[in-house]
Design goal:
heterodimer; A: 260 residues; mainly alpha; 2 domains; 10 helices; globular; B: 218 residues; alpha/beta; Rossmann fold; 4-stranded antiparallel β-sheet
């Protein structure tokens, strides 16, 4: 822990890395400079606030405050997943339910199995990791559903015309969307340790923990991410596909183009 | 004769654009109605409204004397079956497509029924295992038709199902439809093909979203 070398001065000088991105944006006319600087400003402010909030929460070590902070993370993750849904008809509650269940089922198993303790320094970071991965998976699931319902519109219509219920008519799209949502987690599980030394493991190694011990945490993280992305995308997918149909079980035209 | 379908003052518009205006139509059981009219006149929309794939803006569709929306929608669509122009096939094989009508009805796949049906549209029984990408346009259309007709509907809605087919395929499809009609299925068929009017008992001409002519052809 004592060997950690990031201090205010080194942080200030490492800001040069951001300038590289800004310079590239300027030179290549990517018009991203404003976005980059704004995102950095937000990250610095958010992380500073979170740093102090976490310090306080770790000190008071209160169960209710820990649970509230964890729920705050889930609510925010759900809001961001909701915003990633391109469908004009969508409900926030679908995203909240999907992230809530995927996060707390996974968290419950971890706590009950003794893998983590219900203390702020463990519950809050793990909530963040689980909810953010669930958020990304759900966002992918939503986008895939949207594009596939457009690409395969005719096929869905034909199935409906044959008398299929909406679930059967949507099943290939639904399966494909859930698969797409889970694929990055599965791919990353395949290459973990070979290509990347992920955050949890790297953090522990940075903090001076024996790498052999650190990998156990990373294995646990791999398990929990597979659980959360599968749960999150299945729940969100099965709730979201229904929004592509109206109460007469007709496929809604999201392009607003009707065949005459 | 019993009235199968009654359309009363049916209007349909998309946004502010009227597609159909005050359409009235009666279809008797056993009819074979042909619908003609220029492109964009509202023919496909009329069939989709009858198939409950779209909702009318105003007016009523009565099926067997009862309002369309009083039926359980999936059951209604199994009885009032809509065939698309240029249909897409499902899955990977012909089997996947012929399995679908059984799956919808929660029935086990009946291989003999499927093979007999294939022969009705001049396809060999071993077509079941054929990959859909290896089918010609005519074969695809015939397999698609079988999806609608493995379990006979009461009313079959055909949206230019013979368009783009060569004369041989067209004749196979028309002969099959004739057989289906003889079994008591009522047909409502959109076509631009003059020769197909000969198969129809009644012809309706739609223009600018309304029926402008209705005549008995034979």
């Amino acid at each position: 822990m004592n060997e950690l070398a990031v201090n205010n001065a080194s942080l200030f000088f490492s800001f040069a890395l951001v300038l590289i991105a800004v310079l590239i944006s300027q030179k290549e006319k990517l018009t991203l400079s404003k976005d980059i600087l704004l995102s950095i400003l937000r990250a610095v402010i958010q992380l500073t606030i979170v740093g102090y909030v976490l310090k306080y929460l770790f000190q008071v070590n209160n169960v209710v405050l820990t649970a509230l902070m964890s729920f705050f993370i889930v609510v925010n993750a759900a809001w961001n997943a909701h915003k990633r849904n391109p469908h004009p008809i969508k409900t926030y509650w679908n995203s909240l339910l999907a992230i809530f269940i995927s996060t707390y089922v996974t968290m419950g198993v971890l706590v009950l199995s003794g893998a983590i303790k219900f203390i702020p320094s463990q519950v809050i970071p793990i909530s963040g990791m689980i909810a953010s991965n669930s958020m990304v998976a759900i966002g992918l699931c939503y986008r895939h559903l949207f594009s596939k319902f457009q690409d395969q519109r005719q096929q869905v219509l034909e199935k409906l015309a044959l008398g299929a219920p909406i679930k059967l008519a949507s099943l290939p799209i639904l399966r494909e969307s859930i698969k797409t949502a889970m694929q990055p987690t599965i791919d990353s599980a395949k290459t973990v340790g070979l290509v990347s030394l992920p955050g949890m493991m790297s953090g522990l190694i940075f903090a001076g923990v024996d790498p052999v011990h650190a990998i156990k945490y990373q294995i646990m993280v791999t398990f929990m991410l597979l659980s959360t992305t599968s749960l999150g995308s299945i729940i969100a997918g099965y709730l979201a596909y229904k929004h592509y149909f109206n109460s007469h079980l007709q496929l809604i035209d999201t392009t607003k183009k009707e065949e005459v | 004769m019993t009235t199968l379908l009654t359309i009363h003052q049916l209007s349909y518009q998309v946004g502010k654009q009227p597609i159909l205006s005050n359409v009235n139509l009666t279809v008797e059981e056993g009819d074979w109605l042909t619908i003609g009219g220029p492109s964009g006149s509202g023919k496909s929309s009329l069939l989709k409204l009858i198939a409950s794939l779209q909702t009318p803006t105003s007016g009523a569709i009565l099926y067997q004397g009862k309002a369309q929306d009083t039926y359980e929608i999936t059951t209604y669509r199994q009885e009032v079956s809509y065939c698309f122009q240029n249909p897409t096939l499902f899955g990977e094989t012909v089997y996947d497509n012929l399995l679908f009508p059984f799956t919808i009805r929660h029935l086990p796949f009946d291989q003999t029924k499927a093979e007999d049906a294939l022969q009705l549209v001049a396809l060999k029984p071993d077509f079941l295992s054929k990959n859909i990408n290896d089918l010609s346009g005519g074969e695809r259309q015939r397999v698609a038709l079988l999806r609608n007709l493995l379990f006979l509907p009461k009313l079959l809605l055909l949206d230019e199902v013979t368009v783009g087919l060569d004369s041989e395929n067209k004749q196979i499809v028309l002969d099959f439809l004739e057989k289906i009609h003889q079994k008591g299925v009522t047909l409502l068929q959109i076509t631009h093909d003059e020769s197909e009017l000969a198969h129809s008992k009644k012809t309706i001409w739609i223009q600018n979203g309304g029926i402008v002519d209705e005549r008995v052809s034979r």
